[in-house]
Write a structure and sequence with these properties.
Helix content is 33%, strand content 23%. The chain is of the alpha/beta class. Helix 4 links the parallel strand 4 and strand 5. The protein starts with a strand and ends in a 5-residue tail after the last strand.
């Protein structure tokens, strides 16, 4: 999908105080060998700060930086991958009330770690149809410090980190011009993420905690017993989606100055993103990600903000934002920096 006069007008993230993984090992929270292999040095830990409140903080700053007033906004898309508050409650309208206080549509986007990139595509569609109000607010936040999650052990691909991010998509102008995006899924891989889990009753309703690594282990055991698991190549999907987005943007990979990827641990990062894109750690954001881990839905905006704030992206540079979610689905967005971030 090629974008027409669409921009990021303001972005912001909120990351709490980081906990060193070395300290986590000393406290018996994670294994020393896992820490060594992961390459992750620290992750933000929010304590008891509710995820929607983090989103509000990031949203207010992104709005301030964007130059847009509340009356400019047509919608809010809030994404998350962990529990936000009371069951049956609407966190997106809480964020809307605290950040904009306008009677506009607020939607929760449940697309796992891809939530904010998928929300950006939804915002583009909305603004393409109606530009009477030229802005859409995107927010994302997670706090994994609940009894149903263990940030240090639940996922072999990454360490779960707390934080929030927000972005203003604008048809009026901004610091980054959105050029194109592409999304593809491989639904054959759905079962890989489900493992041996039952669908009803949902595990969390009976107090069963999140265990992504346990689901991966389930398929290892099935394979050892002679049952071939559903096959899929997430790295190939990443490469295909990137190629499609680049073609829409009229660019080659050589013209992409930096890639903002998910905060995976070092080996999965290489296998899933760096090798398929044929880039090294320096062209990605490993120096940032190794100090943040995987911040739920906020990885992309937090990484982009970091590159702009530290002047690692400057006027004229092209940046690729790319990530994956269970399903499996991959989304890629390409933008060009047109002036310094507010």
């Amino acid at each position: 999908m090629r974008f027409d006069n669409l921009y990021l007008a303001g972005v912001a993230s909120w990351l709490p105080e980081r906990m060193d993984t070395e300290q986590a090992v000393k406290e018996g929270l994670m294994d020393a060998a896992v820490r060594e292999v992961s390459g992750i040095e620290a992750v933000p830990v929010a304590g008891t700060v509710p995820a929607p409140d983090m989103a509000v903080t990031a949203a207010r700053e992104a709005i301030r930086r964007s130059g847009h007033g509340p009356e400019d906004f047509a919608a809010l898309y809030h994404s998350n991958s962990h529990f936000q508050g009371p069951d049956g409650w609407s966190p997106q309208h809480y964020v809307l009330r605290k950040a904009l206080d306008r009677p506009i549509s607020a939607v929760e986007v449940r697309q796992g770690c891809l939530g904010m990139l998928t929300s950006l595509e939804l915002a583009a569609h909305r603004l393409a149809c109606d530009r009477s109000r030229p802005a859409v607010l995107l927010t994302g936040a997670d706090n994994f410090g609940t009894p149903l999650a263990d940030r240090w052990k639940d996922a072999g691909l990454f360490l779960l980190a707390d934080g929030a991010a927000a972005a203003v998509v604008s048809a009026r102008g901004g610091f980054a011009r959105l050029l194109a995006s592409a999304s593809l899924s491989d639904p054959q891989m759905e079962e890989l993420n489900r493992g041996g889990e039952v669908l009803f009753p949902p595990p969390m309703t009976v107090g069963r905690p999140l265990d992504l690594e346990g689901r991966r282990q389930y398929w290892r055991e099935q394979w050892a017993a002679g049952t071939v698991p559903p096959m899929g190549d997430l790295g190939r999907l990443v490469g295909d989606v990137a190629s499609r987005a680049l073609a829409e943007a009229g660019l080659t990979m050589e013209e992409i100055d930096r890639v903002v990827h998910m905060g995976f641990s070092r080996i999965p990062l290489w296998d899933t993103f760096l090798a398929p894109l044929d880039i090294d750690e320096e062209r990605g954001i490993w120096d940032f990600a190794r100090r943040t881990g995987h911040v739920g839905t906020a990885d992309f905006v937090a990484g982009l903000e970091h590159l702009c704030a530290t002047e690692q992206l400057v006027e004229g540079d092209h940046v690729m934002l790319i990530g994956a979610a269970p399903g499996a689905e991959v989304c890629c967005v390409i933008a060009q920096i047109v002036h310094p971030m507010p």
